Amino acid sequence: MDRDLFDFLDNLDTTDTIFDINRSRRPKIYRKRPNYFNDFDEIDFFRRYRLSKSTVIYLLEKIEHILEFPDNRNNSIPPINQLLIALRYYATGNHLLAVADMGGTSLATSSRIVKRVSQAIVSLRREFIIFPDTNRDQDRVKIDFYDIARFPNVLGCIDCTHVKIQSPGGDDAELFRNRKGYMSINVQTIASAKLLVQDVVARWPGSTHDSAIYQNSYIYRKFERGEYGDSHLLGDSGYPLKPHLLTPYLNPTTSGERKYNEAHIRTRNVVERQYGVLKRRFPVLAVGIRLALNNAINVIIACCILHNICILRNEQQPVNNDDVPNLEELIARGQINNMAFSDRPSLSYGFRRNQITQYFDNL
């Protein structure tokens, strides 16, 4: 070996800056925090954050008191910056490091901000995710559904979609592996005719069957107690037939059954459209959530609340997302239907579907 190389190694000072990257402590770095709210125009802002500036201000006014720090110690991050960091994560599903670089914060700070903002948005759940309980609200929802395909007394359309997550670890981790082979949370929603999320259940592992989620939900118990009268939900064949939950005929034979199925499919399509709009608006639900389980659940519910706010404020739907080139494929993979149940009703459950079939037979 060259003598000069030996001399270099002998004289090498291991305290040089070449080894500083392995030290656990380093000087605190204050990154420049850009003001994207003012820097971007309306079009560029909407493309990057999926909400208009006016809707961001509307949302900020509702949660600012939760996000604001009591003082400016340690160069605290303003609520508007915190909200934009979380929205950017929802809008891309990128690694938090990429979100941190855009927001001018550290990785750890961005992680805490996404958690903090998600919890703040979830606190608005009772205000924006509402199942119609009053007679006036129920009549309005029924009319909206009837206008689609003349299906009577529909209060909502129910289904489940899978949101990919990282393995939660622990002894029960495999419960989250769905039948497609990846880890997920099986999220149940009830959609209105206007694509609003009227109810959301986002706590069940991916291996849980859709019908099991529904039969352990609060809405199911309210329907079983007869609180909604002769109103009903529409579900696919993955659900058991109930007086309050109508499913399609698997093998329709009469004209009435075929008309019933056609109206059922056209009406129930709103929940499929809801998932498409929801995941296009917030691609983190299609790409996957790389957070701890509790934080992932909050992100899902937060996105549902923001989805409803967008509809109520007449926000336009995002056309595409250059950050997620295979978004449509990811959305399709996230919707996993299970057709395990037969459509044969028991004597106690089939009467209402038969009555509605006769109604369609006379149309």
Topology:
Layout lengths: L2 H8 L25 H4 L2 H8 L3 H15 L11 H14 L3 H8 L3 H16 L2 H4 L6 H15 L4 E11 L19 E8 L5 E9 L4 H6 L2 H7 L7 E3 L10 E2 L8 H27 L2 H4 L5 H20 L14 H8 L16 H11 L2
Parallel strand pairs: 1-4, 4-5
Antiparallel strand pairs: 1-2, 2-3
Helix pairs in contact: 4-5, 4-7, 5-6, 5-7, 6-7, 7-14, 9-12, 12-15, 12-16
Quick take:
Its cofactor is a divalent metal cation. Belongs to the HARBI1 family. It is built from 16 helices and 5 strands.
Structural account:
The structure is a single chain. The chain has helices at 3-10, 36-39, 42-49, 53-67, 79-92, 96-103, 107-122, 125-128, 135-149, 210-215, 218-224, 255-281, 284-287, 293-312, 327-334, 351-361; strands at 154-164, 184-191, 197-205, 232-234, 245-246. Helix content is 48%, strand content 9%. It has a 5-stranded mixed β-sheet. Helix 5 (79-92) packs antiparallel against helix 6 (96-103) and helix 5 crosses helix 7. The termini are far apart. It is built from 16 helices and 5 strands. The protein is elongated and about 95 Å long. The chain is of the alpha/beta class. Strand 2 and strand 3 form a beta hairpin. Belongs to the HARBI1 family. Transposase-derived protein that may have nuclease activity. Does not have transposase activity. Residues 158-308 form the DDE Tnp4 domain. It is found in: Cytoplasm; Nucleus. This is Putative nuclease HARBI1.
Strand portion: 5-15%
Could you describe the largest sheet, including whether it forms a barrel?
A: 5 strands, mixed
| pLDDT averaged over residues | 86
Percent helix, as a range, is 40-55%
State Rg.
25 Å
User: Numbering strands along the chain, what is their spatial order in the largest sheet?
Assistant: 3-2-1-4-5
Q: In terms of structural class, how would the helical and strand content be classed?
A: alpha/beta
**Total count of strands:** 5
Shape: elongated
Report the order of strands and helices: HHHHHHHHHEEEHHEEHHHHH
Number of helices: 16
